[in-house]
Design goal:
The chain is an alpha/beta fold. Helices cover 42% and strands 10% of the residues. It has a six-stranded parallel β-sheet with strand order 7-6-5-8-9-10, sandwiched between helices.
Length: 792
């Protein structure tokens, strides 16, 4: 029953209490509802099985043992069974699912904390405002069938997310699920609900904190370790949840302190700070965290949640940098001073009596942080506190290195630190300066050194010149892609004339330094791909400049158009990337999205040329984001560290039975090219990656012009980076119109001589050879019920 909004009276009744639950407006019933609103774990299992039948999971165990219970340790090598009956395949699938679930929980926990806080601050009826759109929460609507209008409408959405996380976590207990394929289905479910949680988090902060709303020309802000004026008090924020920091910015604005204090941040709090107030500065990504702390520049550190070093208090205590923890997910054993007087807290922190405190009263955080940092700065500057060695100490440390190679073995990137030490002894710091960008700042080299050399400090001391020059520009996070942008670009993306969307996301665990993501983005932008980015990758892309001194954000527009570069924002803004593909299905293809995940995912997979890239993925969140993309039919490429996530979803191009699609017009079966060939795969290096990105943008629905454009880029990138024509280019050719114009005759000759195709040379037409011919009205689908005449 639908109750229309308004007032009513009942006469003649006394002592009667009437309780009315949620009131819905009558127009909500007009939205067609799909078959799977708010699906439980098994709700989309059939879709998962279709995906996993084509992209069979492949496992890469990091450890051959299972240590889950007191029956163990159980040796599962050779796929032996453990005491509970589980084998290696199922155990690795469980491990991958658990890490996906951890990432989903991190974002959901972030969302719940932020939602509770913003409802308390602004009220549950605060309207959602993400910019000009008719689809305010595309992921939420597609998964749950709900169209939220206020931030309070997201309460049941997060209830759903949290219930699914609980049910999924329960399946990891001993004596529960034992099937690898069903653990994979559960992992895909966890990835999907992660995108719901992320969407909630970003929409509510955009709506309440006046962040950019689908703003293509969002402001440019400074990024880099060299942008901070260390002569001023430096207040550094680290984490992903901007709730507490907004109060600091409000206080600084009210008291005109932005010219007196350097307010900067690391990781996604940096993104969201600048979205609220562009006067804030971005030090950089996760890899800068320990480096910047060791520099001694911060006079005060505020932490919230996620991607914060576990040894924060050990590092900061050495340098007399007070820490204020503002979120109960990161408390470091500190005392809760939330109810104490601000002056008393400042006195105890400034004196060093307490190295840090918990402070959950954000009004107090807002006032205390600026006051404390201004008190700490002269104290610390007078003492000249830093972890970096002096010039004389640097020489002694470099000379004491025996080139044993322990640091190289311990380094996740295998950086040749020993050679840099040897060169430094001779006065050559070039190798160290090169290592600065490639170093992820984990500090494992310090732990491994048998001579107790603080290796990271030595690297940073030697790199002071390049650090001072580390000054870039970042476009603040724009939020969603607007409806008007979808209407303009959607047809080009679906037809293939815009070659694809490349979403560069994730952490900074790059195999060869952050310049990689800059060069990857630049290459794809020059080829008219739409490049979307977020999180740490978005920061690192902004760190490098061309010969004219311009960053990519200054050279390319921020709209959803081919050849443009979009920064959606922090990690939780990744939901807007998947939301964009949903919007294309809804706006361009006019598909009903409410509670209709399977149909939308099927459309995305067969029609929209999009690929995700987590080149430096290291956290569980990166895996959950990627796995959520996978369930929506979007392939994802990981860097060479990707196998540490324990599984991949590669395709088998040679197995033709896996590449059958239905034609929705009549249900007929068609064998098609492997597009996209993989769902989750790792690339060993940038040379291998570049043509792979282009290949994974092929879709069965490409028209001739679109396929020709995509094939051109695939061939050119392979020749540029690998020096060869790709060995499988021909399987993507359906007719001569698919061939690149500049190479058409050359390629026709190869098709005839090497692959046995029949060519009419007079007309330069292909007569025989392709697996299928082009049919512009072909409606590819993996889902039988979507075919005409199918019985539901």
């Amino acid at each position: 029953m639908v109750i229309k909004k308004g007032k009513f009276t009942i006469e003649g009744l006394e002592n009667v209490q009437i309780n009315i639950g949620k009131v819905t407006s009558s127009d909500e019933d007009e939205e067609p509802q799909g078959p799977t609103p708010a699906p439980d774990i098994h709700g989309l299992r059939d879709w998962d099985m279709r995906l996993l039948k084509r992209y069979e999971p492949v496992y890469s165990p990091i450890c051959d043992l299972c240590c889950y219970c007191t029956y163990g340790k159980c040796d599962l090598t050779g796929n032996k069974e453990g005491a509970c009956g589980i084998n290696m395949e199922a155990h690795q699938a469980r491990e991958a699912m658990l890490r996906t679930l951890t990432g989903a929980a991190a974002h959901a926990g972030h969302g719940r904390h932020l939602l509770n806080h913003l409802i308390k601050r602004f009220g549950a009826d605060h309207p959602i405002d993400v910019g000009p759109t008719n689809i305010k929460a595309p992921v939420t609507q597609t998964v749950l069938g709900i169209k939220p209008e206020t931030i309070g409408d997201f309460v049941p959405v997060l209830d759903y997310v949290e219930e699914q996380i609980t049910q999924l976590l329960a399946t990891t207990h001993i004596g529960q699920e034992g099937s690898a394929i069903d653990f994979e289905s559960k992992a895909l479910h966890a990835g999907m609900v992660d995108h719901v949680g992320m969407e909630v988090s970003d929409i509510i902060q955009i709506s309440c904190l006046d962040m950019p709303k689908s703003q293509a020309d969002a402001p440019l802000v400074d990024v880099g370790m060299g942008i901070i004026d260390s002569t001023k008090p430096v207040l550094l924020c680290i984490g992903h949840n901007v709730a507490a920091v907004t109060y600091i910015m409000d206080y600084m604005e009210e008291h005109d302190l932005f010219d007196k204090i350097e307010l900067a941040a690391i990781c996604c709090t940096a993104h969201d700070m600048t979205r609220v107030n562009p006067k804030a500065k971005v030090v950089g990504s996760l890899s800068k965290q320990l480096k910047y702390i060791r520099s001694g520049i911060p006079d005060l550190i505020i932490v919230d949640e996620q991607c914060i070093r576990a040894d924060m208090m050990r590092e900061t205590s050495k340098l007399h940098i007070p820490v204020i923890a503002t979120n109960d997910k990161v408390m470091y054993g500190l005392p809760d001073r939330s109810k104490d007087d601000i002056d008393d807290i400042i006195r105890d922190l400034a004196s060093g009596d307490q190295p840090g405190v918990l402070l959950f009263d954000y009004e107090k955080v807002g006032e205390l942080a600026p006051k404390l940092v201004m008190k700490m700065a002269p104290i610390r500057k007078e003492k000249g506190i830093t972890a970096l060695p002096s010039d004389e100490e640097f020489k002694k440390l470099a000379s004491s290195c025996t080139q044993c190679g322990a640091c190289v073995i311990g380094c996740p990137q295998g950086l040749e630190i020993d050679k840099a030490m040897e060169a430094a002894v001779e006065g050559n710091l070039t190798l160290f300066e090169e290592l600065h960008d490639k170093c992820i700042g984990c500090g494992r080299c310090d732990v491994e050194c048998p001579k107790n050399i603080p290796v990271l400090d030595v690297i940073e001391k030697a790199s002071q010149k390049v650090i001072r020059e580390e000054k870039g520009k970042l476009r603040t996070g724009r939020g969603q892609v607007g409806d008007a942008e979808i209407r303009e670009e959607g047809v080009n993306l679906v037809m293939g004339t815009t070659p694809g969307v490349v979403a560069i996301i994730g952490c900074p665990n790059y195999p060869d330094g952050s310049r990689d993501v800059y060069e990857i983005a630049e290459e794809m932008l020059q080829r008219s791909y739409i490049v979307v980015t977020s999180g740490c990758s978005a920061m690192d892309i902004g760190m490098f400049k061309d010969d004219e001194g311009k960053t990519l954000y200054e050279r390319y527009g921020g709209g959803f158009l081919k050849g443009n570069l979009l920064n959606t924002g922090s990690c939780v803004s990744n939901a807007h990337i998947t939301a964009t593909t949903i919007k294309v299905a809804a706006i361009f293809a006019r598909r009903d999205i409410s509670g209709n995940f399977e149909e939308i995912a099927d459309y995305v997979m067969n029609r929209i040329g999009a690929v995700g890239l987590a080149w430096g993925g290291s956290t569980q969140k990166a895996l959950s984001i990627g796995t959520g993309c996978n369930r929506l039919g979007i392939p994802v490429v990981l860097g060479p560290h990707g196998p540490k996530y324990r599984r991949a979803y590669p395709g088998k191009a040679y197995d033709k039975d896996k590449w059958n699609l239905l034609d929705a017009r009549d249900g007929s079966v068609h064998n098609v090219e492997p597009a996209p060939e993989h769902l989750l795969i790792s690339a060993e290096n940038k040379a291998e990656l570049m043509p792979l990105l282009a290949k994974l943008c092929f879709r069965p629905g490409d028209n001739n012009l679109g396929r020709m454009i995509k094939l051109t880029h695939y061939i050119e990138l392979s020749e540029k980076y690998l020096g060869v024509l790709p060995d499988d280019w021909h399987i993507y050719v359906r007719s001569e119109a698919d061939l690149p114009l500049a190479k058409r005759e050359e390629l026709l000759k190869i098709l005839e001589e090497e692959h046995g195709w029949k060519i009419d040379w007079d007309r330069k037409k292909i007569l025989e050879g392709p697996a299928r011919m082009v049919d512009i009205s072909f409606q590819p689908t993996n889902v039988p019920r979507l075919c005409k005449g199918a019985v539901e």
